[in-house]
Design brief:
two-stranded antiparallel ribbon, mainly alpha, 18 helices, 1% strand, disordered C terminus, 463 residues
């Protein structure tokens, strides 16, 4: 029962990352004065607060108890979902989506910590894999599920969280076990604020650049603020005892490249999620429900290939599997770039790209998780997974912002082709980053002393 409660929290937070994308056409009807770049902040506000608070919330959970922080995050996420469903304006919706991201950030690392506590040390790789898989399934299921709900009303994409969240809260209150708390320095609150503001400035620059003019004072000013903020964040991370991002982990080659690959790949996922539903509903004039059903083969293909590709990644290493997944995902975007026309033809023009891209999604996902976490000692698995989640959220926010800029105004077929090329380029960059990963040395608990030691790296893992 405890595992079910934890995974419900993981699932709904992952679903809410992408589910709003497919509701954009319906939101445009509710907020007729809103622009596409304005609507993109419904997703970006969630992604930015989620990313900025993931790592520090893990430390809060260690200090205050993982059960307490998980239930606070779940309660906040559920309550704010109700406010989002009733939002009277786009501004209110964006503000509370940011607050919803706070709830999701409190849930994510504490959920992994709770899940790890339910498994023996030698089986914690299974717990990390389960946690990652449920998040991946949530991301893949978001678009078809959102299409079904948005057919009723876009507000239902938030209403669906209420019964799931309430049930998990009630059951989790008595089924989850309290974890021991740890001493340590407080998280870097100033670093959190600066990092979030810097990312928000860069995302705003990308999203609004077309509307404001790339040489305008607003774009230049926000770009400067974002870059200075990021530089300051890096310098502060090197000196603070509890930095937002731990530099020591990024010095591990596989972890660093795994996070780079994750950021690139989910940039492509964000571009794909936004451009496909808008293409189907705005260019081909299909209903939101029909668009959701037409997108569904991609997530189905991803789910079918995720488990076998995870097995292959262990046998043959993340380099070849990751490259294959990135190339397949990019091939889906390239297919859409050249095959899609203004005249609808789902079977011949859209479906092949969806299946090819979905296969790539399923193949690369386990390789991304392995590269970002397997080289870490068991005690750092939660932190490493949280860092990968940060890369995922930031990549997604940037991908959506880029597509919002490309499709702003009155987009034509060539604009959508650029958006699909963004997807393809990001997927290929992700595959190449994984191919550059060296041998992944899996860390396992030592027999004594509580330290960790690397397993012998198999010949396959170095390929």
């Amino acid at each position: 029962m405890s595992i079910t409660v934890i995974l419900i929290g993981v699932f709904i937070s992952a679903v809410d990352m992408l589910i709003v994308n497919i509701a954009f056409p319906s939101m445009l009807e509710s907020f007729p004065t809103a622009s596409l770049t304005g609507l993109s902040w419904v997703m970006s506000a969630y992604a930015i607060t989620f990313a900025a608070l993931l790592l520090p919330s893990g430390r809060w959970a260690d200090r205050s108890g993982r059960k307490r922080i998980f239930l606070i995050g779940l309660g906040l996420f559920t309550a704010v979902s109700a406010v989002c469903a009733a939002a009277p304006s786009l501004e209110v919706l964006v503000a509370f989506r940011a607050l919803q991201g706070v709830g999701a950030a409190l849930m994510a690392p504490s959920s992994l910590g709770l899940l790890l506590g339910l498994f023996a040390p030698e089986r914690r790789g299974i717990a990390v894999g389960l946690w990652t898989a449920v998040g991946g399934v949530g991301s893949a299921a978001a678009l078809p599920l959102g299409g079904l709900l948005a057919q009723i009303d876009w507000r239902w994409v938030f209403v669906v969280n209420l019964p799931l969240g309430a049930a998990a809260l009630l059951i989790g209150g008595w089924s989850l076990h309290r974890s021991a708390t740890e001493d340590g320095p407080l998280p870097d609150l100033l670093g959190i604020a600066v990092l979030a503001a810097s990312v928000a400035a860069i995302v705003a620059t990308i999203a609004q650049g077309q509307a404001w003019g790339w040489g305008s004072a607003q774009v230049i000013g926000l770009s400067v603020v974002g870059v200075i903020g990021l530089v300051y964040s890096v310098r502060r991370a090197l000196r603070h005892p509890a930095p937002v991002i731990e530099p020591a982990l990024l010095r591990i080659r596989t972890v660093a490249l795994g996070n780079v690959a994750t950021g690139f790949f989910f940039m492509g996922v964000g571009a794909m999620a936004m451009s496909t539903i808008l293409f189907l509903t705005q260019v081909w004039k299909h209903s939101t429900l029909r668009g959701a059903l037409e997108i569904a083969p991609g997530p189905v293909a991803a789910a079918l290939f995720a488990v076998p590709s995870g097995i292959l990644a262990v046998r043959y290493g993340v380099r070849l599997i990751g490259l294959a997944g990135g190339v397949a995902f990019a091939a889906g975007g390239i297919w859409w770039t050249f095959a899609l026309e203004g005249t609808p033809d789902f079977g011949a023009h859209f479906l092949p790209g969806s299946i090819i891209g979905g296969i790539g999604f399923g193949v690369i996902l386990p390789a991304l998780a392995a590269a970002a976490t397997l080289s870490l000692p068991p005690k750092r698995a939660a932190t490493g997974t949280a860092m990968a989640s940060v890369s995922r959220q930031l990549g997604m926010a940037i991908g959506v912002a880029v597509v919002a800029a490309v499709l702003s105004g009155a987009p034509d077929l060539s604009s959508y082709r650029i958006a699909f090329m963004v997807m393809a380029g990001a997927g290929l960059a992700s595959g190449l980053a994984l191919f550059a990963v060296g041998p992944v040395r899996r860390q396992v608990p030592a027999d004594t002393g509580g330290h960790s030691k690397p397993e012998h790296t198999t010949q396959a893992a170095t390929r």
